[in-house]
Design the sequence.
């Protein structure tokens, strides 16, 4: 039992569907065969949603710290004691305030090694902003807390894996943010993650163009010729199997993504729209390139269906198991490389 993976779970906006998909996922007792879940939130808020879902045969085990987690129970740490008014579907400061408290305490434990992985429920990127959270989203916040120079927003599903060069920035800023250095960094992170986190020995990566028709030989923009192609060539020189740039529209329409292990898109919607269409039910957002493991479902707060027992837990469950699989692969890789066999030359004189 002591070797079971401890998975921390932040609850996201308390007025969204976070706790609903968390409870629906953890109500399946088979989950405990694979991990020890630790939810960072509030028993009072959790009880509100448990009653709203009419789930009566499920309870949390209340603990004070992750070290006290019971491997046979679904655990919860009360991150605050005060009563909080839950208003499903309402966007307000309360939802953002307690989403941050949950996230901050979970990340504290993640970076301290008290938990092995973190699965984050959706936040509202606007109402969570405060003195300690001035970031476009989870990815940038956790990257900052981990002290990582760069990270990759990596969307993974059964049939497609997609990363983005630029993430949560305005479209008007995309072109100026597409640099050879940025593309090369993301390609290196993607290659390393495919090898270390997904055990793909020789990953093949497709790179999309920025402009329509991938620039059409410079007729519709010059970023492909001046930035993207040079980045791909330099990546190849470093041993990365990168191909492109491909026009984004036809690439997904004709199923070309199936010929590659992953796709690097230039900006958020270019990669996420086709990804969410293809991997609608099992898509997972993984922050690659960090020393810690963090995943999340690929959907948002779902205010329009919050508290109505309509939210599907499929993506959250996939995010949970993706985190478990990545932790296991990293552990196995560490074991395999910890004591490599020494190579010694045989003497020609064997007598």
Sequence:
């Amino acid at each position: 039992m002591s070797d079971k993976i401890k998975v921390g779970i932040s609850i996201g906006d308390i007025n969204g569907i976070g706790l609903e998909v968390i409870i629906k996922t953890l109500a399946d007792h088979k989950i405990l065969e694979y991990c020890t879940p630790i939810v960072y939130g509030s028993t009072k808020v959790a009880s509100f949603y448990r009653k709203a879902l009419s789930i009566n045969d499920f309870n949390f085990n209340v603990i004070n710290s992750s070290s006290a987690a019971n491997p046979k129970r679904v655990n919860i740490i009360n991150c605050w004691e005060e009563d909080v008014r839950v208003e499903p579907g309402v966007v307000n400061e309360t939802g953002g305030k307690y989403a941050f408290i949950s996230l901050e305490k979970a990340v504290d434990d993640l970076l301290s090694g008290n938990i092995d992985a973190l699965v984050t429920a959706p936040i509202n990127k606007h109402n969570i902003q405060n003195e300690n959270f001035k970031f476009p989203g989870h990815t940038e916040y956790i990257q900052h807390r981990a002290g990582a120079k760069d990270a990759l927003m990596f969307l993974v599903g059964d049939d497609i894996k997609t990363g983005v060069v630029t993430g949560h920035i305005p479209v008007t800023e995309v072109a100026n943010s597409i640099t050879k250095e940025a593309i090369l960094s993301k390609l290196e992170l993607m290659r390393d993650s495919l090898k270390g986190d997904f055990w793909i020995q020789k990953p093949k990566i497709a790179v999309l163009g920025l402009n329509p028709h991938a620039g059409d030989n410079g007729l519709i923009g010059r970023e492909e010729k001046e930035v993207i192609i040079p980045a791909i060539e330099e990546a190849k020189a470093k041993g990365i199997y990168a191909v492109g740039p491909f026009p984004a529209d036809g690439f997904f329409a004709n199923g070309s993504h199936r010929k590659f292990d992953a796709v690097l898109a230039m900006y958020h919607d270019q990669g996420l729209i086709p990804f969410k269409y293809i991997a609608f039910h099992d898509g997972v957002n993984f922050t690659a390139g960090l020393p810690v493991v963090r995943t999340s479902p690929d959907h948002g707060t779902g205010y329009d269906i919050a508290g109505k027992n309509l939210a599907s837990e499929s993506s959250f469950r996939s995010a949970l198991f993706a985190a478990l699989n990545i932790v296991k692969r990293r552990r196995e890789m560490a074991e395999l490389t910890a004591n490599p066999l020494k190579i010694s030359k045989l003497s020609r004189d064997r007598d």
In short: The mean pLDDT is 91.
